[in-house]
Amino acid sequence: MIKLLQNQYVCLFFFLLCVSSVCAQGNKGTVRGRVLTSEGKDADNVSVTVKGRAAGTATDDHGNFELKLEPGAYILLISQTGATPIQLAAEITAGKTTQLDPVRLDISNRALQEVTISSGRTNKFTRKGSDYVAKIPLSNLENPQVYTSISKELLRDQQINNLDDALRNAPGVTKLFDATGRAGSGATNFVLRGFSTQARLRNGLAGNITTIADAVNVEAIEVIKGPSATLFGNTLTSYGGLINRVTKKPFKAAAGEVSYYGGSYGLNRISADYNTPLDSAGNVLFRVNTAYNYQNSFSDNGYRKSFFLAPTLSYRVNDRLNFSIDAEFNTLQSGGSQYFYLYPTVNVSAFGANRADQIPVNYRSTFSNNDVMKTGQNTNVFGQMNYTFNSRWKSQTNFSVTSSTSKGPAPYFYIIPGSSVRTLTGVNSYTGPLYLERMVWSPNGTDLNAELQENVTGDFKIGKFRNRLTVGLDYFHARTNINFNRFAYVTSKTPATRINDLFDFVSLTNPGNAYYNFNESKVDSAYANRPAGTVLTTKNDSYTYSAYASDVFNITDNFLALISLRVDRFDNKGILNNSTNVVSDGYRQTALAPKFGLVYQVIPEHVSVFGNYQSGFTNKTGTDFESKPFKPEHSNQAEGGVKYDLLGGRISGTLSYYHIKVTDIVRPYEANPALSIQNGTQVSEGVEIEAVANPFPGLNIIGGYGYNYSVYTKTTTAQTGLRPTNAGPERTANLWMSYRFSNGLVKGLGFGAGGNYAGNVYAINSNTYGQFILPSYTVYNAAVFYDQVKYRVGLKINNVGNKRYWVGSGTMNPQMLREIVANISFRF
Fold this sequence. Notes:
The chain is mainly beta. Residues 440-800 form the TonB-dependent receptor-like beta-barrel domain. It is found in: Cell outer membrane.
């Protein structure tokens, strides 16, 4: 069916593109401009109309507007509630673009936000453009790449304060694995277009947080779809795309907000956002966001405690030069973690069930203790320098340094059949059907990333053809230094064998007092008294040197082409063996990553059809069965679709079909499984639909649907023809509807409701061992709030139906039950 859809969809797309591209462009001209607040900040959603005509538009998130008109002289009327209208004269010439100087509306940024809130007429859940997706300001309708932007207004409406919950609003995105807090790789894993992805970018640069990321300093979250190595490299992205946090920036006014959240499972959260200019001219601006969060698990044990601080300072030297420096400090303490793996090398039938809801384990049981505790810390520092050469050329220099550390025991438990326990240990007294193999190690150490990036952008014409060019250089250094502290369990078999990290086996259905043995005292005793486990140290340095260029080329005003290329030189210095002090497995590789796109605006500024070709790669170390060194693994995506922004921005969205093929996958060489061969392939294709609507004042809706077909087309006999376990569900859906009264005695009162659906997920999917399913689920959420200029109160119920459901890849990790949260915010 998907193949049929592929053929029909692609044919329809190229038919529309070809027909549209040869249509006459008419003799219209274009006028562009920009509107600022009285403080010089971008003024979005400001009305721009043509005096005496029905034509008009609204400014985008960057305060920009564009109109296409017949040749002649016009008066543009720029207006917003609470501000004095501005009239601008514009002379339109056929086939040419008139660029107006920026204008300032006599309304502050805070007042503009209040107007936006109180009017109830804006599509507040949508953002019309991005500075980061293409590394230049580009509207969504002009961009051949698909992305979802989750605004802070949507987060406020849903009373959300972390990225895990926020990403429920992105079509096709689901959680794959909960955050572990481990240095380097401990962030939450999500599924995006059939591939595992973490939120590792901040404002387009390395900005990893190795726990559940707090959203207190988030302006928006961008989910950028498809292989994106051309502009973002391969280290921080996946073949499904990337997740980019866009953070709040300082502005020219003193303002602040303090919020408190309290609710189920001992939730206590306090956060603050404060902004102020540091000089009378408003050239030095400071903003700080901070949050403290504590909550117990819904289970019998488990808690998370975190503190987050994010200051930012900007300095405007003059009209051409400005600087900014940001930091993020995040600390985490957690205990009683619940991670249930499925023992991997047994037939699923040995579990006595093939679904998570059939395994006889208490949904709230952790088999752990709160004093088995780990700690972690993130310290991220960012800097930026912007210099404007002239109206056409700009330079931006960026750096980021991110550091994550972790310390303490990290449990991981396997659900294992009793027969396997007897085989492993040689002890026949394990007669029960299912046990929990309680494992623990301590990954202690630091992961450090440093990135330096230079981008030069130009907006110029060659003849009559507009070009928006980005040329960039990127240097990325990754250093990992993590020691895995381990002990070994010595079996009773003859001869005795050792099992690394094994603490004990406990009955899954009738654990008795042994349930409580996994505690700090007994884990410490195991480290002190048992034999040491196999040494495992990850100490590695790698360097990536990249150059890239990207040009958005206007063939006509409405027909655009994008062409981009990246060259990437990867230098892995190898892994240090602490026992021998020998460095091994160092290697160097060079990779190219092209990107192409076409966009035609069938209805200018309202409907566009697009197509893209995007690529990604992953560096691979080692040699194959013939001792030939591996080359980089590659992915290629072909995608086509439609984007729309209708009824003055009240209805917008995207419909797209994508096809991703991964080649050069390293897999076991079945003639000798101890060796490898690099000829594996995988396909991931699907459809995504997103719609954001404000059909009438006060009502805002966001919804999406994702279908993904992912399959190993060439790998081992055990996996060929099957869906990968890290590909997530085939089908997902999300919906949120919110209504806010804009007038009368109940002005500011609002309520919202929605939910998420995810289909079945394969925790095990093997031609050899069988299939184990995490069942599909639908989770409903609801909220009510009362929003005024100076304060806001709200009540949110997550998982209204108290649904029991699991996520995982080779795991079955239970998720949050019903949660009730109340909150109050004060603005000043």
